[in-house]
């Protein structure tokens, strides 16, 4: 069973994603509410996958993505974006994010992205 | 208001007060307790005899005889406290004894005659007549209304 | 949409937090309109709200936040300046959002007619866009779609002579030329980012020669859902397809080998150096994209980190669970009392030690549980700046609200209750206290009035004070009105000091319906305010200097539930006197008591203090045993600067008890604030000594 680290500053969003993932037999490695927590938790839990919100306090998702990839080049990170963040998503993909999903989340889309990245 | 079973029956608890039998719907009753220590509360209506510790909850206790203006008597082994469910807090009624629980057909409930056993009509919901027994269904909300609250209810 | 009820609670909680953040930062922004970093925070909250609202299917909410976000974005990028009008519209939007969240929290569907507000937001955007109109339209013209979409039975692509040459050359060098038609899912939201990913995937295994529509249009999303990419690669057709399919939100991929021979090429006149160029175009474009993304991000970053919100490691616990925990603990405290009693009776060393230890631990536990229930008063205070802002606009007054001590903590039960009465008091200060600017100036005061709301901690109490520099209270008016409305008689009035006279304003019957204004009245008088604080175990006093201002001071207990009492016995009855009210206990000889004005008093440390005989007031039965005693046991209690001695039969000792309510049926018992269950299971009443001091 693959483990996923969920990163989003809104616990509501984390709950949504967590719910989708657990219903599809994924393990939740942890939840982080900002970029720094994400980096720390990644090092600690070494998850198979990360869902990473872009807009977060302290350290945003792209900075966290870059930091994680620097230490773990094989890390699989899916960005969670909102409409209107195209350039940031592209920046993230450029930096090495594997995929992105757009809010509002829909379960099938999230799973599609996750399965493609894991597959 | 009366909760009726499928075949038009109402489940009631029948209790004794002086010479009469009265009934309260089972749904209104939380539990039936033996008489226990009640702490007096100063400066309240005489029929409020105080509060008791009912499993950690402070519960007011009313003497139903006093509430109805019937003559008082000492509490004994048969004395029971009927604990009624209220929205916020429970309230105990002291009665002479709790006799039994029974189903009565809605058709057996008749309108109240003016006075039953000295209890004023306003507290009564109806009279139940069975072959060998007669008892009165009580109106819980009316009993709980304190006299001065009637005036204040216009607020 | 997925099942939502389970998320609703979290949604509401978090939305309310974001609304608060919005309000707080908007207030800051209004004070410092040039500080764009604040806008970053505001934007982020609006943005999150939008996402959450859309996810939950609250369309009006999402719609409104979307427009709000657009306006904030313009401000953030310094394309719009923060004027008072802009702030008004933004505040109005936040009001709407609040209404919607409140509706949702109350079980509603959160729908609301937001058209008016949205129009205002749009007007702001449009006004702004007019300025940039010229350049915008010019740019749009260049970017507009150039080609109609192609029909897609098979992958259609045409190549000019130059492209053909490139393809042919690569073919000859052992590369396969492919044309790939890709169709994105119709619901794809960030199409350009998807295109970017596809380009990225393809570039890992080959070179992109051409795309239709061209890369520019793809990036600007000037296409529907399909596009064709021509690529040269060394990998197999099927592998290429699988690689593209790894990108999500793609519904179809068709890969065909380009027949480089077909339309006969004319000549090989192009130079090889030129062949590199088209393949480079996409990456070049990509770099630009990256630059813009970077600048966007760094801007955002500086905005976010400047005054980053503090995110502690916390978990959310439903308040009901805390209440259950508290109740369980209360039962434990009762048993602890019982155990202490048994152990003292049994006099067994091991037992006493264990019980002592357990008592200590439960004491620590009690502190932790009580602390968990503590919340900063900011929870209540934070809505006041907005309220003051709109109220002063409404009344044409200029008021500055100063808040201090918002971090002071109180039990959440108290926090829950004090909001409305404080609103009332603040409204009162602004409505009746602070004068119109011209009146103030005429009186030699600054035009802007000041209301200072402060909270501070003192002993077992928290004080909340509302001080204004307004007109103050007219003592004569209070006296006149009190007499008119029968709140006080002339005789009593003579004995009263100023503070007591002002206190008459809290008496029930003081305010009459006619003079309750829209603002501070709301149909209730100050007596309701006083009642609320008193039910919480607190009190309120007011002081004022006519012409200079007033000070309302509210005293509240830190926590409601567990209190320290002195247990006393009167006849066979036990009562608890809260330690907070006790000055000291004393035993006096009966012959020290004398009468003054038909009142029994004693001389206590140089003060004449009245005695209150609890056995008389409470009509305690069975007091034979106490009659022969030569001494009185006294509990000296205070209320403000007044002192009285409560006469009891004996002092039992100090106990930690759990204060329980007598319930709604017994809500107004004189001089009794509640009850507690003692170690032996008996109920003891807790005195409200304030009611006994006149």
TrEMBL record, chain A:
The modification 4-aspartylphosphate is found at residue 53. Pfam families: Response_reg. It comes from the Bacteria. This is Two-component system, chemotaxis family, response regulator CheY. SUPFAM superfamilies: CheY-like. The keyword Phosphoprotein applies. Residues 3-118 form the Response regulatory domain. Keywords: Phosphoprotein. CDD domains: REC_CheY (cd17542).
From TrEMBL, chain B:
It comes from the Bacteria. This is Purine-binding chemotaxis protein CheW. Gene3D superfamilies: CheA-289, Domain 4, SH3 Domains. One of its GO terms (biological process) is chemotaxis. Residues 9-149 form the CheW-like domain. One of its GO terms (cellular component) is cytosol.
UniProtKB/TrEMBL annotation, chain C:
The modification Phosphohistidine is found at residue 47. Residues 562-694 form the CheW-like domain. One of its GO terms (molecular function) is phosphorelay sensor kinase activity. The lineage of its organism: Bacteria, Bacillati, Bacillota, Bacilli, Bacillales. This is Chemotaxis protein CheA. It catalyses: ATP + protein L-histidine = ADP + protein N-phospho-L-histidine. The keyword Mitochondrion does not apply. Residues 1-104 form the HPt domain. Keywords: ATP-binding, Chemotaxis, Kinase, Nucleotide-binding, Phosphoprotein, Transferase, Two-component regulatory system. Its EC number is 2.7.13.3. GO terms for biological process: chemotaxis. PANTHER family: CHEMOTAXIS PROTEIN CHEA, SENSOR HISTIDINE KINASE CHEA. SMART domains: CheW (SM00260), H-kinase_dim (SM01231), HATPase_c (SM00387), HPT (SM00073). InterPro entries: Bact_Chemotaxis_CheA, CheA-like_dim, CheA-like_homodim_sf, CheA-like_P2_sf, CheA_P2-bd, CheW-like_dom_sf, CheW-lke_dom, CheY-binding_CheA. One of its GO terms (cellular component) is cytoplasm. Residues 261-282 have a biased composition (Low complexity). It comes from the Bacteria. PROSITE patterns: CHEW, HIS_KIN, HPT. The keyword Heme does not apply. Residues 310-560 form the Histidine kinase domain. Residues 283-309 have a biased composition (Basic and acidic residues).
């Amino acid at each position: 069973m693959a483990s996923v680290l969920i990163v989003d500053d809104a616990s509501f969003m984390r709950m949504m994603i967590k719910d989708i993932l657990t219903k599809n037999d994924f393990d939740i490695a942890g939840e982080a509410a900002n970029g720094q927590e994400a980096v720390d938790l990644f090092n600690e839990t070494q998850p198979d996958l990360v869902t990473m919100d872009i807009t977060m306090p302290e350290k945003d998702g792209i900075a966290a993505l870059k930091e994680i990839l620097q230490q773990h080049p094989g890390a699989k990170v899916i960005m969670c974006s909102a409409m209107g963040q195209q350039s940031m998503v592209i920046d993230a993909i450029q930096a090495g994010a594997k995929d992105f999903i757009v809010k509002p989340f829909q379960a099938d889309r999230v799973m599609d992205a996750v399965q493609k990245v894991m597959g | 208001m009366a909760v009726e079973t499928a075949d038009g029956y109402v489940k009631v608890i029948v209790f004794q007060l002086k010479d009469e039998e009265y009934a309260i719907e089972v749904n209104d009753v939380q539990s039936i307790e033996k008489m226990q220590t009640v702490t007096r509360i100063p400066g309240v209506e005489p029929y409020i005899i105080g509060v008791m510790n009912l499993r950690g909850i402070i519960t007011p206790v009313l003497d139903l005889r006093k509430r109805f203006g019937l003559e008082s008597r000492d509490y004994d082994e048969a004395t029971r406290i009927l604990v009624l469910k209220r929205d916020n807090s429970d309230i105990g009624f002291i009665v002479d004894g709790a006799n039994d629980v029974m189903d009565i057909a809605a058709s057996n409930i008749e309108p109240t005659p003016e006075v039953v056993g000295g209890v004023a009509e306003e507290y009564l919901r109806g009279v139940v007549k069975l072959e060998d027994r007669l008892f009165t269904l009580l109106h819980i909300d009316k009993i709980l209304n304190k006299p001065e609250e009637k005036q204040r209810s216009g607020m | 949409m997925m099942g939502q009820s389970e998320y609703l609670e979290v949604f509401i909680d978090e939305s309310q937090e974001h609304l608060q953040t919005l309000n707080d930062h908007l207030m800051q922004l209004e004070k410092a309109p040039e500080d764009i970093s604040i806008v970053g925070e505001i934007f982020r909250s609006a943005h999150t709200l939008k996402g959450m609202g859309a996810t939950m299917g609250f369309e009006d909410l999402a719609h409104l936040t979307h427009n709000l976000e657009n306006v904030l974005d313009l401000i953030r990028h310094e394309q719009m300046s923060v004027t008072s009008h802009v702030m008004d519209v933004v505040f109005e939007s936040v009001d709407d959002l609040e209404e919607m969240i409140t509706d949702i929290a109350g079980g509603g569907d959160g729908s609301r007619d937001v058209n008016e507000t949205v129009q205002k937001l749009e007007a702001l955007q449009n006004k702004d866009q007019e300025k940039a109109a010229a350049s915008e339209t010019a740019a749009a013209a260049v970017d507009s779609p150039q080609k109609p979409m192609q029909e897609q039975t098979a992958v259609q692509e045409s190549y000019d002579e130059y492209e053909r040459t490139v393809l042919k050359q690569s073919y000859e060098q052992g590369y396969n030329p492919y044309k790939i038609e890709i169709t994105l899912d119709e619901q794809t939201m960030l199409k350009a980012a998807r295109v970017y990913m596809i380009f990225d995937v393809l570039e890992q295994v080959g070179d992109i020669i051409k795309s239709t529509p061209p890369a520019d249009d793809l990036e600007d999303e000037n296409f529907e859902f399909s596009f064709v990419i021509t690529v040269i690669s060394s990998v197999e057709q099927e592998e290429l397809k699988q690689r593209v399919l790894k990108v999500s939100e793609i519904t179809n991929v068709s890969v065909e080998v380009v027949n480089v021979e077909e339309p006969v090429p004319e000549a090989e006149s192009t130079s090889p150096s030129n062949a590199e160029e088209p393949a480079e175009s996409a990456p070049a474009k990509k770099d630009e994209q990256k630059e813009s993304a970077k600048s966007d991000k760094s801007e955002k970053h500086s905005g976010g980190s400047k005054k980053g919100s503090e995110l502690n490691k916390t978990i959310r616990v439903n308040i009901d669970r805390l209440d259950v925990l508290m109740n369980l603990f209360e039962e434990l405290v009762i048993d602890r009392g019982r155990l202490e009693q048994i152990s003292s009776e049994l006099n067994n060393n091991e037992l006493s030690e264990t019980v002592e230890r357990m008592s200590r631990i439960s004491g620590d536990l009690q502190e932790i549980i009580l602390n968990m229930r503590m919340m900063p008063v900011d929870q209540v205070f934070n809505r006041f700046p907005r309220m003051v802002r709109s109220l002063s606009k409404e009344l044409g007054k200029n008021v500055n609200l100063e808040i201090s001590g918002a971090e002071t903590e109180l039990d959440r039960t108290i926090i829950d209750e004090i909001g409305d009465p404080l609103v009332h008091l603040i409204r009162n200060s602004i409505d009746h206290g602070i004068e119109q600017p011209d009146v103030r100036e005429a009186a030699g005061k600054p035009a802007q009035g000041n209301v200072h709301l402060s909270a501070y901690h003192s002993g077992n109490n928290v004080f909340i004070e509302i001080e204004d520099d307004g007109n103050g209270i007219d003592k004569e008016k209070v006296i006149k009105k009190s007499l008119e409305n029968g709140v006080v008689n002339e005789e009593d009035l003579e004995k009263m000091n100023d503070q007591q006279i002002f206190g008459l304003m809290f008496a029930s019957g003081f305010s009459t319906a006619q003079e309750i204004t829209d603002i501070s009245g709301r149909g209730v008088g100050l007596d309701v305010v006083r009642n609320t604080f008193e039910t919480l175990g607190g009190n309120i006093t007011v002081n004022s200097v006519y012409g200079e201002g007033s000070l309302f001071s509210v005293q509240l207990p830190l926590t409601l539930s567990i209190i320290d009492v002195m247990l006393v016995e009167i006849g066979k009855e036990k009562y608890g006197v809260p330690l907070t009210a006790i000055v000291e206990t004393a035993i006096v000889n009966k012959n020290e008591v004398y009468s003054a004005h038909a009142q029994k008093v004693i001389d206590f440390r140089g003060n004449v203090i009245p005695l209150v005989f609890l056995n008389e007031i409470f009509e305690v039965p069975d007091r034979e045993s106490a009659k022969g005693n030569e001494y009185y046991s006294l509990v000296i209690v205070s209320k403000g600067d007044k002192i009285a001695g409560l006469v009891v039969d004996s002092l039992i000792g100090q106990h930690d008890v759990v204060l329980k309510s007598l319930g709604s049926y017994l809500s107004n018992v004189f001089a009794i604030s509640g009850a507690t269950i003692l170690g032996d299971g008996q109920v003891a009443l807790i005195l409200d000594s304030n009611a006994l001091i006149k």
